[in-house]
Amino acid sequence: MKFIIQRVSNASVSVDQKVVGEIGNGFLVFVGLCDLDTYEIADKMIGKLLNLRIFSDENGKTNLDLKNVNGELLIISQFTLYADCRKGNRPSFTKAGKPEFANEMYEYILKECSKEIPHVAHGIFGAHMEISLVNDGPFTIVLDSDEICK
């Protein structure tokens, strides 16, 4: 499982030129899933995501987490995070999770995050989406379950 987390001032996702999800201050999270992922891995990744202290406190230090700043989440499924670019110039996506399993895990992540964060917006699994964002910093973090869940 891979999360690309961007601290944003605002972000939105559109499908067919219609906004289907939007947030103000918070995290835009791109989620890549593979067939080896489990609910246990998802729980560890969600815990790390929700407790990342990357918002500035009153002294300008990155010391506050999403809950401390009443932040919001926009979570987008993105199978391309499992692109294999080792050979040739056309990426292979065979390491990405099969759609039915990946969607089940994606829905689980949305449900679990909603238990902690009041506003969790999301895209539409498998749809062609257009993402707009204002990256605050910029501040981008990569979480990989191969490193987080050892």
From TrEMBL:
Lineage of the species this protein comes from: Bacteria, Bacillati, Bacillota, Clostridia, Lachnospirales
Biological source species: Parablautia muri
A GO cellular component entry from the record: cytoplasm
Assembly and interaction partners: Homodimer.
CDD domains: Dtyr_deacylase
UniProt xrefs under Pfam families: Tyr_Deacylase
Keyword line: Cytoplasm, Hydrolase, RNA-binding, tRNA-binding
InterPro entries: Daa-tRNA_deacyls_DTD, DTD-like_sf
Residue span of motif Gly-cisPro motif, important for rejection of L-amino acids: 137-138
Record comment regarding domains: A Gly-cisPro motif from one monomer fits into the active site of the other monomer to allow specific chiral rejection of L-amino acids.
Protein name, as recorded: D-aminoacyl-tRNA deacylase
